[in-house]
Design a protein that fits this description.
This protein is mainly beta. It has one domain (about 30-195): Coagulation Factor XIII, Chain A, domain 1. A hairpin with a 4-residue loop joins strand 5 and strand 6 (about 95). Strands 1, 2, 3, 5, 6, 8, 9 and 10 form an eight-stranded antiparallel β-sheet that branches. A four-stranded mixed β-sheet has the order 4-12-11-7, with no helix packed on it. The radius of gyration is 24 Å and the shape is globular. It has two helices and twelve strands; from the N terminus they run H-E-E-E-E-E-E-H-E-E-E-E-E-E.
Length: about 200
């Protein structure tokens, strides 16, 4: 076969491959999962000292998981505001700030045994989104976020307190989206005592 013909065929093949690899074929960028090394729950009463609970993962995306550090002990019949702070201490990043920037794609869900709080009542919105949680923040679409919430304890009791952070991008987060929708960024359960 003539070298010119072989070269021409090869050149045509390169051109056809190049034409088929335009920007339209580039897969969309995925939102990488955040590395969370430190989770801090701060329950601040209307008066008195704050109660802090935490979870720590010293190796980030290594084999260790976030581990609960202590339990939550709250006073009976007391109003608390809860703030959640998330950090990546390995890279010096505030995951809380990233969640605020992407609030339309994130939502915290909460679960506990019924009767431990007088408000919100029930057992949280992990099993049923329509169950009551008192969110103190929202995204730009008016949907709850959950970095700040309000709680009123009831009488002395023991329970657990579960916190789930869901990543719900591209329209997944709606007025009816559940804790089963989207990807789970965080799922932790603390022992909770009201005394």
């Amino acid at each position: 076969m003539n070298i010119k013909i072989v070269s021409l065929i090869a050149l045509c093949g390169v051109i056809m491959l190049s034409a088929g690899c335009g920007d339209d074929d580039t897969p969309p960028m995925e939102n990488p999962e955040e590395i969370i090394t430190d989770v801090t729950l701060t329950f601040t009463p209307t008066s008195g000292p704050s109660i802090v609970a935490s979870a720590i993962d010293p190796d980030g995306d290594g084999p260790e998981e976030l581990a609960i550090n202590g339990s939550i002990v709250l006073a009976t019949n007391t109003t608390y505001s809860l703030t959640i702070d998330l950090q990546n201490s390995i890279d010096g990043e505030s995951i809380t700030e990233e969640i605020l920037e992407e609030a339309e794609e994130h939502m915290f869900f909460f679960g506990w045994q019924g009767g431990i709080f007088s408000a919100p009542n029930g057992d949280g919105n992990i099993e049923d989104r329509s169950d009551n949680v008192i969110y103190s923040d929202e995204d730009d679409n008016g949907l709850p976020l959950g970095l700040r919430t309000s709680w009123i304890t009831a009488d002395a009791a023991t329970s657990t307190f579960r916190v789930i952070l869901k990543h719900q991008p591209d329209g997944v987060k709606t007025e009816t989206s559940e804790s089963s929708d989207g990807d789970t960024d965080l799922d932790l359960t603390w022992d909770l005592t009201i005394e």
